[in-house]
Task: structure prediction
Amino acid sequence: MPRRLTIKDAYLENRLFLNRLVVAVAGILVFVIGLTARLVYLQVAGHEHYSSLSKNNRVKISPLPPTRGLIYDRNGEILAENVTTYSLEIIPEQVDDLERTLLSLKTLLNIDDEEIESFRTLKRRSKSFASIPLLLRMNEDELARFSVRRLHFPGVEIHARLVRKYPHADLMSHVIGYVGRINEDELKSIDAAVYQGTNHIGKIGIEKSYETVLHGTAGYEEIETNAQGRLIHTIGNVSPTPGADLHLSLDIHLQKTAYDALAEYTGAVVAIEPDTGNVLVFASKPGFDPNPFVYGIPKKDYAALQSSPDRPLFNRALHGVYPPGSTVKPFIGLAGLEVGATDRGRRTYCPGFYRLPNSSHRYRDWRKGGHGSVDLKTAIIQSCDVYFYDLAHDMGITRLSGFLARFGFGTRTGIDLTGEKSGLLPSPEWKRRIRNQPWYPGETLITGIGQGFFQVTTLQLAKATAIMANRGRAVSPRLVTRIVHHDHSIITVQPDASDVPLGAANVDSIIEAMIDVVHGARGTARKISEGIDYRIAGKTGTAQVFTVKQQESYKESQVDKKLRDHALFVAFAPADRPRIAISVIVENGGHGGSVAAPIAGLVIKQYLANKSS
Amino acid sequence: MTYSVPQVRFPLPAEPPGGFFYKIHVDLTLLAALILLSSIGFVILYSAGGQHIDLVFRQATRLGIAYATMLILAQIPPRHFRHYAPGLFVIGIGLLAAVLIMGEIGKGAQRWLNLGLFRFQPSEMIKISTPMMISWYLAENPLPPRIKQILITGILIIVPTLLIAKQPDLGTALLVAASGAAVLFVSGIRWRFLLKVGIVLGGLTPLLWHFMREYQRARILTFLNPEADPLGNGYHIIQSKIAIGSGGIYGKGWLNGTQAQLEFLPERSTDFIFAVFAEEFGLLGCLTLLLVYLMIICRCLYIALQAQDTFSRLLAGSLSITFFVYVFVNIGMVIGILPVVGVPLPLISYGGTSMVTLLAGFGILMSIHTHRRLLPI
Result:
């Protein structure tokens, strides 16, 4: 754009600018006077009018929390429900003489000092018009006594609310988990609009992993209140959407059988349907009562749970890792057949120990005298260690752990619970990466009998057993089979399956050996074969406890107990058309055959008896 | 081409350049007034935000960033702003277009541009670069602007305004338009032109209506008759008026405003915070607050008056007037004399981005004031 020759008249520009600023200031003053006039109109002239409107301000929007979805077992037995509880709450602002009120309530309802103290603490942190709970759970007697004298206590109200209840307490605690009060961290990660009016959130277990499904969506209502904020009537509302109900594959009766069968032992039992991955039993003993956690468990009770030597808060099925011991032998035997490191005819002489070439160190067999000359089948039936030392040595650790990985060892099973442990499938790479040490040949041997670094969860063992039962089809275990939404739409959770390519003849010969573990004359678990008309394929295991855990300081007998071996057992049945795969770990139980196998036997028999009838 | 305007004496005492704060490019009077205002902001935010000290801390962090931005900008001599004005404007327009095309959708409106590390709101940048651009353009030519310059200025105003209105962010669009118009005003545009511009804008109102979204139209209609829809769009303004009116002359006292504390008042820590203030501190508090705002605006206008070249002067004048427009639009909306447009109360409302822009503007003003030279009279 060609610039025209123009002359800037600085004096004129300055005058003009000054002029405009003066106008601007004048304009601003006019506008400010306008604002002031309006404020005077509202705050002086209209003060009385608006004051009374403010006092009578009555329409409030209050959130309506949704009802949490229920949880059922496969038979429709309720595992988590909502029950109405009544709490006594005080709005301090509306009470004339708080001290006197507290005193008369105390005598009326036998409230102890501790509860009064916690009320005072809450009161200090709350606004004066907030409703502060004094009693959280009122029983019917207290309810009746207060209701009669209600008029004498202005500002004191009974609030009814739905609170989570777990009727099966410790039996289901490690599966269902519990809800608790939303904490600061959770507050940051949730959608505030959805959680309007909700105080609780799933903390562990199904309650946590299905939180979004169980919770639902909050609604709200417009309510008309009087000057004290007391409800007069509801003008309109948007209903909350209740959370969806969950149907689990668990069978409460089977779960109870397994849990009770563990008797005084600590341990875990997991049973799954091989073709669907449906979890039938998911027991970890001891459990705990999750109900106090809903209200906020008193500190000393929580401390007692935490310091208990049996560690009831510890989910052994999901978080407990154990050496698999001999239960891993069928898998290693199969590995040998599949990679060609052994065949069905190959025999190894077992003198009761094994020595690596050029080494004097003896790797002992569990039977001092040895098993003599054994083939693979006999080695599995009698659980001969020397055969597997030899086989592992021939196969080498890389091929061994590579094959075991296909059965899901060392990786999470993908169950629908959070915080699952992945166990540990050792390999030279792992050792170099984590410990920065080379792999020693002796470590291959002990891996071959499921000891050493090798660690599995009960759940992993059950899944691996199911893969064996399926003859090479892996299905992720899952607890929730159906999600039933409020609008009656049902989501059926489909099994998540994948194929593990295995030679059919090889698998059959291993399964034959596993059948003989239970049904053979010299099988290590032959006791449980009594009185059944189908075949169970199983394998016992005993895992050494290497170290004493933590600093334990109880009686000598107890220390001895804690040093005892873990007893393990895996099985599936019926062997030809498997409908249940199970793994049992009994901590410090001693021998797998005598302690763990009978528990599995009970569960299998009960399940198959029910099914056939 | 840079030429400085020969200074003529103003009928106000000139503040000679010099002194410690001049050297570190800080205008002490302005800074003190701003700090006073932000302190009032913290006090009322604590009450409005439901007495959560966290909220105040978060706001303090943002304010810290905003003050830092202000002090940094104050170090840059105004000639740099002039030099980069066209470039910044072009970039700003480009970013606005980018937001429309690929901007993230938040709250149904497209305002943010995700730059990986942080999210950036180009409409904030354009709030400053539009008056900067127009000041640059008008300063290149003799004042008062002729018809051709007025038309080009009109285009410079309309392009960013429409781009922002399309987001849709009507409040910011109007503020950007106001900042551009403010430059035209202080440049000495003749009254008859001003009249014509006013008539043209008035004629464009139906067009604006066409551009508005449903909710924006609802707000205008609500403003005209709030009682027609007391639980929907009218709810804000009715509750706000109750809060202010019930405050009376002396107010209900800090933390005692029932409208705010009982949560009748919506958006009480953001756009409607003035209502909380009015409820708790009454008419006397409101007048005090207005006085603080006036102090700041007068100081800004004084800085504009003292500016030594046309660009600085126009820019300073525009920034000062725009600041007042912010205050006026927000308070006007809260006390029910303007429709509800989402404009925060400067330095009081909770929220970060607009505060940084606001203080950036004050930084430029400080720069203008503290980079003056001693000129022979």
In short: Confidence is low (pLDDT under 50) at residues 104-109 of chain B. Chain B is about 65% helix and 5% strand. Residues 273-306 of chain B form the longest helix (34 residues). Residues 21-75+226-372 of chain B form one domain.
